[in-house]
Amino acid sequence: MKKVIMLLCLVAISSTYAQIKMQGVVKDSIGAPLELANVIAINQETNGLESYAVTNDKGKYILSLGKNGKYKLQVSYIGLASYEEIITTTESDITKDFILMPDNALDAVELTYEMPVTVKGDTLIYNADSFKNGTERKLEDVLAKLPGVEINDDGQIEVEGKTVSKIMVEGKDFFDGDTKLATKNIPSNAVDKVQVLRNYAEVGQLRSVTNNQDNVAINIKLKEGKKNFWFGDVTAGAGAAPSPNDELYLVQPKLFYYSPKYSVNIIGDMNNIGEVALTNRDIRGFGGGFRLPSRTSGTNINLGDNGLAGLTNIANAQEVVTKLASANFSYSPNKALDLSGFLIYNSSRLRTREENFVEYIEVEDDPNTPIDESLTPPNEETISTGREATNQFVTKLSASYKPNVNNQLDYDVLARTSDDQERQNLFSSVVGNTNQLDQVKPFSINQNLNYYYTLNENNIFAFEAQHLIKDEDPFYNAVLDDDNDAFDNTATDLGLNLNQINYDLNQERRVKSNQLDAKLDYYNILNSKSNINLTLGTIFSQQNFNSNIFQFLDDGTRLEPTPTATDLENNTLSAFNDDVEYRFSDVYLGVHYRFKTGKFTFTPGVSFHAYSNQNTQNGNTFKDNFFDVLPDFEARIQFKKSEALQFNYNMTNTFTDVTNIAKGLVLNNFNSIQFGNPELQNALSHNFTLFYSSFNLFNYTNVFARASYSINEDQIRSLTNFENVITTNTFFNSQFADENASLFGRVERTFGKIRARLGANFNYSKLNQFIQGRQSLNQRFTQTYTPELRTNFREAPNLRLRYRYTVTDNDQGNNTTKFITRAPSIEFDAYIWDALTFVTEFTYNEQENAGQTEVFKTWDASLRYRKDRDAKWEYSLRASNILDIDSNINNGAGNISVFSSETFIQPRFITFRLTYTL
C-alpha cells in the first residue's frame, strides 16, 4: 500500500515538472473582471483537451500546459462572444489577459470542446465524457468521478455534503423517492450531462420566497442518439459456487425510452448471487418523494414501525435469492398536464447465521435504597440461524396540472403492501434453544394534494395536505426449550403454565394509524429583498392498538395467562391490550419574515401551537392539552457565488407512538418485554446547525463542513430491569437532559489528474439511562478519518486509495471500552486495447478491542471484453469474495452491553455474464 501511494506521488511530481503555468485575467469590454468565465486549452497535436479553468471572482484563471507545445485557447462567457487564439509554449510560464466583447462585436467562435464543469446560476453542469475513461458501466461509475460528488456507504448521492433528494432524466422523475435505482441501472454510455440543481425548488412559484439551500436534485441529460429510441442492456449470467449455492444464475433486463411526450423505464432482476439494486429495508423506506407539510412546523409525531426489521446489509447473508420487477413512466398529453408513476415488486429469500458474545455492564448498588440494584446479567454467547422471506409491492401515481404560470395542482398516491416472514433458531448459553417466528402483512396508503396559486406578483398562496392510512398486524411465536430454567421467573411473571415440556409463547398485535397533515401558506412579497410568510396548519393523528399474549400447552389447548407482574405503581399488568386508542392533534400558526441585506439573508420565525394529546385504555382516559411557542431562525452569508455559511436553530416537540403508551405487556421478543406509560408527555429539543460550503472551480478545491448540536429536555427514556438476560422495559419522561454533538468536514483538491480528499467525522453523545432503578450516564465519542487519493487518467489505468480510521470510546459508568477500526482499501480499473476492462477492489479490515485484534479481508474482481466502445455484446467474468472468507467481524457497544459478533457471508462466487446493449 505504501509503495502504491509513493508511486502516485512520483507520478504527480513528474507531471508537475513537465508542465508550465499559464495565468491571467478575463475581463469584459469595459475592463470589469468576469467571474466563472471558461478557458479551454486544446492540444493541437492530439486534438485532445489539455487543460481547463474557471475564473474566480477577480477574473483570474490558471492553466497547466505542457512545455514546448502548441495549443488552441478558447475563452467563453455567457452573453459575450467567445475568443480563440493559438499559442506556443516554451519552458517558461506565461501570463496573458483576455477581453471578451459583446456578441454583436465579434463573430462567435464555435467551441471544439465543452468545459468539463460549468456553472449557470445555481446549476452545476458536468460534461460526463470529460470524466469517462471507458471502464464505466452505470451512472454511479460516472458520478463517483465527478469533483464534489460522493457516493456514500449507504449508496446515496452526496453533493457538497448534502444528500441528493431526487434524480430526474430529461426533467422527468426517475422512481421518485430513492436515488439508488438510478445510479445502479442507468447505463453510463447514455449520459451526456449531469446537472446538479442546487437550491432546488419543487415548485417554481415558491422559488423566490422559500429557503431551499438544503435541497439538491440531479437531472441527467441523455445523448442525442438515446432520445426517441429504446436503450439499455440485458444481462444474463451463470456460475458455480460451493454447496448449497451449486448453481448460480442472474438475469437483469434494464430498458429505457425517452421522448418529449412520454418516457418508460423497466428494470428487472432475478438472481441468487446477492447483487440487488434495492434491499428489503430500502423498499420499506421508499418514500416516493412525499414530504410532510408540517416538516418545518416544529412538531414531530412518531407513528412507529411494527414491520420486520430485516437485514441492514444484504451482504450479511449466507444465501440471497431475489426477484425484482419495476417500471416507471411519465406522460404529458399536453403542456399543462403531467402524469407519472412507478410500480415495484420485490421478492427475496435470505439465509443468515450470526454468532455473538455479549457482556453486560455492571450496575452499582445504591446505598440510599432498600433494594439491591447491583444485579448484573451473566455474559451470553448466542448462535443464530435464520431464514427471511419477503414479498413487497409499492406503487405510486402522480398528476400535475399547470394551466398557467399562476396555478399548479398536484396529486400523488402511494400504496404499499408486503408479506414478510422470518424464522430464527437461537441458541443461548443462558436460556438454551429457542425457535422463533415473526410474520406481518402490513399495508399503507399515502395521499398528497397540493395547490399553488399566485394572485399577483406580490401575493402567493400554497395549500398542502397529506393523508396516511396504515395497518400493521405483526404475529410473534417463540418455542423455548429453557433447559437451564432461566425463563422460569419471567414465565411466572407472565402467568404462564410452567408444567410443560417447553414454553410455546405467542403474541398477536394490530396497530392501525390514520393521520392528516395539512397547512395553508400565504406569502406576501414586500419588496425585492424581503417577504413575510403566514402559515395555518394542523396535524391530526389517531392510532388504535390491540395485543394479546397467549400460550399453547402440550395438549394443544390455548392458555390466556393472568400475569403477576406489576407496573411502577404496583398495579398488576395485563397480557391483553384491548382497544387502546391514542389521539393527537396540533393546530398551529406560524409567522416567518425573510429579508436580504448585502451578503446576508435572515429568516426569523415563530410558531404558536395548541396541542391535544389523549389516550383511552382499560376504561381510563389520560389527557394532556397545552399551548406552546416554538421559535426558529435561519441566517445565511453568501460570501461568493459558490461559497456560503448557513446557521439554523429550531425548537422541536416530539410525541411518541401508541406502542409506548399501551399499558399492557408487549413482547418485542421472548427476552425483551415492555409495558407502556399512558402518561407520557412530549420531549422538547433545541437544535443548532452550522454549515459551510465552498465549491471553487478556480483552484479545484471543494470544502464542506457541518457542525450540529442538540439538547433534549423531558426526553422519553426507558427504565430497564434484568432477569438473567431477559429485560423488562417501560418508559418515562427523563428530567436529565441528553445531548448530541457532531462535526463533519471534507476537503477535496484536484492536482492535474489526481484528486485528493480528506474527510473527518466527530460525534459525541450523552445518554442518561436507567437500569435496575438506578440512573447512569452513557457517553460515546466517535472519530473517523478517511483520506483518499484517486486518479482520473483517460488512457492510463486508474487507482482509488482510501483509508478509514475509526476510534470509538464508550463510557458506560463502571465500564469503559475503546474500539479501533483500520480499513485501507484499493480500487483499480484499466481499459486496455479499447476492448478489455479490468476492475478490482480489495479492502483490509482490522478491528481492535482491549488489545485483541481481529482481521477480515474482502476482494472482488471482474474482467470484461467488448470489441470496441460501441459494441453491442460484452462478455464478462466476475469473482466475488475471492479469498473465500467465511464471515465478517463487528465489535461495538450498546447502551447496556458490549458485544462482539461474527456474521457469516456468501462464499466465493465466480460467474460468466453476457450483456447485450440496445
Describe the model.
By secondary structure, this protein is mainly beta. It has a 36-stranded mixed β-sheet that branches. It is globular. The two termini are 40 Å apart.
Task: Summarize, please.
This protein is mainly beta.
**Which structural category do the helix and sheet elements fall into?**
mainly beta
Low-confidence stretches: none
Shape: globular
Helix proportion: under 10%
How many alpha or pi helices? Answer: 5
Instruction: Summarize the main sheet.
Output: 36 strands, mixed
Number of strands: 53
Strand content bin: over 45%
- Give the terminus-to-terminus CA distance: 40 Å
Chain-averaged pLDDT: 88
Alpha-carbon Rg, integer? 30 Å
Keywords:
918 residues; mainly beta; six-stranded mixed beta sheet
Helix-strand blueprint:
Layout: H1 2-17, E1 19-27, E2 38-43, E3 49-54, E4 60-66, E5 70-77, E6 80-88, E7 94-95, E8 98-99, E9 117-120, E10 123-127, H2 139-143, E11 149-151, E12 157-159, E13 162-163, E14 166-169, E15 172-173, H3 180-183, E16 191-198, E17 216-222, E18 230-240, E19 247-258, E20 262-271, H4 280-284, E21 299-301, E22 319-334, E23 337-360, E24 380-404, E25 407-428, E26 432-440, E27 443-456, E28 459-472, E29 475-480, H5 488-494, E30 503-527, E31 530-552, E32 558-559, E33 576-597, E34 600-617, E35 620-640, E36 643-655, E37 665-669, E38 672-675, E39 683-696, E40 701-713, E41 716-723, E42 726-733, E43 738-751, E44 754-771, E45 774-791, E46 798-811, E47 816-832, E48 836-849, E49 852-865, E50 873-880, E51 887-893, E52 897-904, E53 909-917
Parallel strand pairs: 1-7, 1-8, 14-17, 21-36, 38-42, 41-44
Antiparallel strand pairs: 1-4, 2-3, 2-5, 5-6, 9-10, 10-16, 11-12, 12-13, 14-15, 16-17, 18-19, 18-53, 19-20, 20-22, 22-23, 23-24, 23-52, 24-25, 25-26, 25-27, 26-29, 27-28, 28-30, 29-30, 30-31, 31-32, 31-33, 33-34, 34-35, 35-36, 36-39, 37-38, 39-40, 40-43, 41-42, 43-44, 44-45, 45-46, 46-47, 47-48, ...
